[in-house]
Amino acid sequence: MSTAFSTATTVDEALAALAGGARPVAGGTDLVVGARQGKALLPESLVAIHRVAELRGVEDVDGGLRLGPLATHAEVVAHRSVRERFTALADASAIVGSHATRAHGTIGGNLMNASPAMETGGPLLCLDATVSLRSATGTRAVAVGDLFAGPGSTVAASDELLVSVDLPPPAPGTGSAYVRLEYRRQMEIAVVGATAVVALEAGTVTGARLAITALAPTIRRVPEAEDALLGTTAEGGAVTAAARAAADGSFPISDVRASERYRKAMAEVIARRAIGVALARARGQDVPVPASGSHA
Amino acid sequence: MKVAATLRVNGVTYPVELEPGTSLLDAVRDDVGLTGSKEGCDDSECGACMMLLDGKPVNSCSYLALQAEGSEVTTVEGLANGQELSPLQSAFLEHGGVQCGFCTPGMLISATALLAESPSPTGDEVRIALSGNLCRCTGYDGIVTAVLAVAGAR
Amino acid sequence: MTAVEDEPGTFVRPDGREKVTGTGRYTADLTLTGQLHAAFRYADHPHARITRIDAAKARALPGVLAVLTHEDVPDVLYGGMVADRRLFARETVRFEGDIVAGVAAVTPELAREAAALVEVELEQLPVVTDFEAALATDSPLVHSDWESYEGDEELGRHHNVLGFSTIVKGDVDTALAAADVVVRGSYVTDPVQGVPIEPRAIVAQWQGHRVTVWSSTQVPYVARAGIARTLGIPESNVRVIVPLLGGGFGAKCDFHFEGHVAALARAAGRPVKLVFSRHEEFVAVGHRREGMVIELETAARSDGTLLARRARLVLDSGAYCGEGGFFAQMAAMHAHGPYELETVQIESSLVYSNNQPSSSIRAPTAPQVCWALEQHMDELAEALGLDPVELRRRTLIEEGSVTATGQVLERIAMKETLDRAVELIGGGDGLPEDEAIGVACGWWPCFAGSSGAYVTLNPDGTGTIVTGAQENGTGAVMAMPTYVADELGMRPQDFSLLYQDTDAAPWDAGSCGSQTTFNNARAVIAAAVDLREQLLDAASDKLEAAREDLELVSGSVRVKGSPEKAVSVAELAAEGTFHGKGAGEVPEAPVAPAEGCVGRLGNESFHAPQLIAHAAHVKVDRDTGVVRVLRVAAVHDCGRILNRAGADGQVYGGVVMGVGQALTEGTQLDELGRQRNPHLLDYKLITASDAPAIEIDWIETDTPNAGPKGSKGVGEPPCVPTAGAIANAIAKVIGARVRHLPMTPERVWEAGQ
């Protein structure tokens, strides 16, 4: 049971609390649910950061994007630049939980919870996002690809606070997509998910990123799948090869949600769909957000 | 150790003393004394506890009460204007949106949030928005019809 | 905006306003002065011998006022058709949710802490989780002392078999040998949970020798009997009140935890409240839809005539009988199905295991067996080269059909429901290749029984209906004022309802078996008629007119043809005492000789059967196995429909429950019989965005032996054939059968490989 609670209104206040051993809470969704289910007790000391104004917002920065960790999924989906240029992230934020989850659940909370099934991780990874972790002694930048240490853990130290998530400008001709296997249309948790980011120049793939979600202990990119697309015109054979590589690069488990065999087979299907939507978007086609549920 | 705080629920300010881990749902039901919001699950899956926090829907079972200090909380008890039911409340009754009624408080809150944000939703948008609220009785048909009736009426 | 209940001509369910304003009280919303909180210590292991229980540490915890084990309550066995269970396990625990101890403490947290402090030492026993294997005579026994239990002789109990029923007619072997076509199929179903959105709650308070128990039960009189039996007190010392009930679907039938909470309250000398978590709703409630193994074999002539059916059914009773003792026979009747069969041999076994106990969930046994049988019928149609709808038209029951148990069916509209469902869903031609339409048919009986009610008048001319009936949300009780108002020429809103209080009204079976309108409306109408006679007598004196010349219209008794010669009901009520009482005559069940059948528990004949046809239009993602149900047409013969909006509401909800059973709802067990998905994230209910568009129609027939005004039941049948219709549509798309329910994406994908 928590014994101490404070509310920070500035980053400095929050950092002071973290230095004193407190854990940050933003929307609280994962933290409180975990405690109620008995998975993890609430931390002894909590600092609420939801009123720290400087941690809010989604803004365009020189063609790139800066997300405050308190940006909610609803805000992310609603942002025009996200939908137009960082579409995979919009695909992901649009399908997190329910509309109540999206109204209060934050990008920062989602990211720092480091679930291998989290929706936004794959897009942030493939869009080359970097997070800024600040402590009383300074700020360091960590690529999202280096952030996840394992299921439910990150490389952030206990006195470090996530203060921003920065996405560089995508290359011209980039399209991206996040696709999740969905047993239901809403209220799902990823059993299999895939993110694809492709850049086309005169019909040739000049940039490719592919990440798989819920198929390994952490969300991870599959370089073999990316290589299968690079330099090709992304016709059927290359896409199939990339999707197969994504499946080969997955190490799923069998659990209550699916068997290893099914997950592995779906890794290929879902990767193929993510690549298909990303390519379609790169070619200027308007594939609605979220991409999940569409059969590209 | 309990923390003194004030919660503003349906326009009324309540002084409360809460353990830091107390959920907004428990605080409103047990400390404020409004039992309209329901607890139906352990994992934020059913939506029976849904409230508005500064106008936005929140599963109050998984939101810390102390974080709501300084915000306006609205529960199902705050939807009617005195004795006059809100249009959604009336429409739920008129269109078969209420059977056992246990999901109804959260469902009404959810629908209220939707119409505030999107006054003329399509049927599918209503269904997507209400997917965080499980109902076992109605098959959702009467609920969706009620929401669309209110949306169409304004 | 005007409140709808104030608009003339509209009748809103009397509990509507409190439900939309949040002012209604459900059991968990009640708080009594001095109230304590209860928590249970569960076995957590499916099969073990208890070698030691030590509650000393729990009792020593400050704030704990009572800790109870089997030693602290009378040693009484209870159960439906077999008394096989104690409030607190004594020597043996038989499923993970068996209760070993109960605690009452000043906060819920302390109660849980104390429950964890009860020291329980277990010696593991072999776990019987494969219920089909439990049939074997060398299987470990779930109840080693089963022979000593008090139970219904007709069940045919033996070893782990709790119930055995057969339907036998003619010589199946000879018929099979002579047939043009024989199809066989095997099917397996996972257990399914009721999942009312309200987790159960109970509050108990003693005053002297009497206990009042507020409980979220569908069956308050059954709960009262259970408390009286297990605590050894007369029923007159027990009052059960049901506040608003947040759904049941069968899961809140039977006596479950009221005895524990009453015992804790007595021991603590304080009111005690129990509120279940969702986890406990899954794991501790001994009340789920049973898993089954179903083997079917049907022989037909080339014209479709059904020459023979052989079936073998094994049903998982789980650890205890509960009120599911009749399941073997009921499942057998659904393996027969609403078809004309020349020869039949169905064997159905209900078997103990160390799994969660099974009991009635909405139309118990029917959805699973129907899902299997209706796939089997489509397979037969394919083998015969017949359209599935045409095969059903040729073989479904109709007036004059004789079932294999010998019941001669009276007027029914089985074929008409099918034709109408097919008409509503439209043709399957021209659909994209990943979409298809499937149909399925089913049946379900009415349950006639006693019930009683009073109707009294207040001095201002309004009145009160006092009924033992139980409202679980369907609106069946909420419609009672309309029937009374019809008899008395008054308005429904003139009547208040006093219901679900065992001290107030005569016994009623509760909200189970779709019986509320069938039995209690009969009683309520009889009470209203009794009251009407009293009003006519009084008005006859007052108006000096012959009784037969009087009519009740618009709140007055008046002379026919001379509306100015009238006296208002209010005037009469102010001058006298008027109270009607009624029970009505329970209609007699039809006769079925059921010669050669064993395990005859009363369901060998189906009283006023309800007939159901569903057609489902589905879309299958063949790469992933994900199925979306786009549309369902649901047509029912439930006799005369008294309350169309209420009846439609049952179908909307039932179909969506059926979609869940078909696609996403299934409890998974580990090798020790423990639940792997006891939470709503992984036990997936259908959400608003997954629910299909549903078109409903009713074929209203005049049914002999029907309920009041020609009605039959409505509530249970809507979830019966939905899964079968969906399964048949899936098979059309993927060209293969999914033989395991629920038909999850993975299973659909596997079948299509």
Structural account:
The complex is a heterotrimer of chains A (296), B (154) and C (753). Among the domains of chain A are: 1-51, 2-Layer Sandwich (Uridine Diphospho-n-acetylenolpyruvylglucosamine Reductase, domain 2), CATH 3.30.43.10; 174-282, Enolase-like, domain 1 (2-Layer Sandwich), CATH 3.30.390. Chain A is 34% helix and 24% strand. Chain A is built from twelve helices and 14 strands. Chain A has helices spanning 11-19, 29-36, 73-78, 80-85, 87-93, 99-104, 107-113, 121-126, 144-147, 223-229, 236-248, 260-282, and strands at residues 4-7, 23-25, 45-48, 58-61, 64-67, 130-135, 138-143, 148-150, 153-154, 161-167, 174-180, 193-201, 204-213, 220-221. In chain A, helix 11 packs antiparallel against helix 12. Chain A is globular. In chain A, 59% of the residues are buried. The model of chain A has no long low-confidence stretch (mean pLDDT 93). Chain B is 33% helix and 16% strand. Chain B has helices spanning 24-32, 87-94, 104-117, 123-129, 141-153, and strands spanning 3-9, 12-18, 50-53, 56-59, 72-74. In chain B, helix 2 (87-94) crosses helix 5. With 154 residues, chain B is α+β, with helices and mostly antiparallel strands. Chain B has five helices and five strands. In chain C, the strands form six sheets. Chain C has a seven-stranded mixed beta sheet. Chain C starts with 15 loop residues before the first helix and ends with a helix. Classes of the chains: A alpha+beta (296), B alpha+beta (154), C alpha+beta (753). The A-C interface holds A 37, 181-187, 189, 256-259, 262, 265-266, 269-270, 295 and C 279, 621, 623-624, 626, 628, 663-664, 668, 676-677, 679, 681-682, 684, 686-687, 689-690, 744-746, 749-750.
Q: Can you give me a brief rundown of this structure?
A:
Chain A is 34% helix and 24% strand. Chain A has twelve helices and 14 strands.
Topology:
The complex is a heterotrimer of chains A (296), B (154) and C (753).
Chain A: E1 4-7, H1 11-19, E2 23-25, H2 29-36, E3 45-48, E4 58-61, E5 64-67, H3 73-78, H4 80-85, H5 87-93, H6 99-104, H7 107-113, H8 121-126, E6 130-135, E7 138-143, H9 144-147, E8 148-150, E9 153-154, E10 161-167, E11 174-180, E12 193-201, E13 204-213, E14 220-221, H10 223-229, H11 236-248, H12 260-282
Parallel strand pairs in A: 1-3, 2-3
Antiparallel strand pairs in A: 4-5, 5-10, 6-7, 6-10, 8-9, 11-12, 12-13, 13-14
Helix pairs in contact in A: 10-11, 11-12
Chain B: E1 3-9, E2 12-18, H1 24-32, E3 50-53, E4 56-59, E5 72-74, H2 87-94, H3 104-117, H4 123-129, H5 141-153
Parallel strand pairs in B: 1-5
Antiparallel strand pairs in B: 1-2, 3-4, 3-5
Chain C: H1 16-21, E1 36-42, E2 48-54, H2 56-60, E3 64-68, E4 92-93, E5 99-105, H3 108-117, E6 119-124, E7 161-169, H4 172-178, E8 181-189, E9 201-207, E10 210-215, H5 220-231, E11 238-241, H6 258-268, E12 272-275, H7 278-283, E13 292-300, E14 306-318, H8 327-336, E15 343-352, H9 366-384, H10 388-395, H11 414-425, E16 435-446, E17 453-457, E18 463-467, H12 480-488, E19 495-499, H13 516-543, E20 550-553, E21 556-559, E22 562-568, H14 569-575, E23 579-582, E24 607-621, E25 626-637, H15 644-663, E26 693-698, H16 722-734, E27 740-741, H17 745-752
Parallel strand pairs in C: 1-12, 8-27, 10-11, 14-15, 18-19, 25-26
Antiparallel strand pairs in C: 1-5, 2-4, 2-6, 3-5, 7-15, 8-13, 9-10, 9-12, 13-14, 16-24, 17-18, 17-23, 20-21, 21-22, 24-25
Helix pairs in contact in C: 5-6, 8-9, 9-10, 9-16, 12-13, 15-16
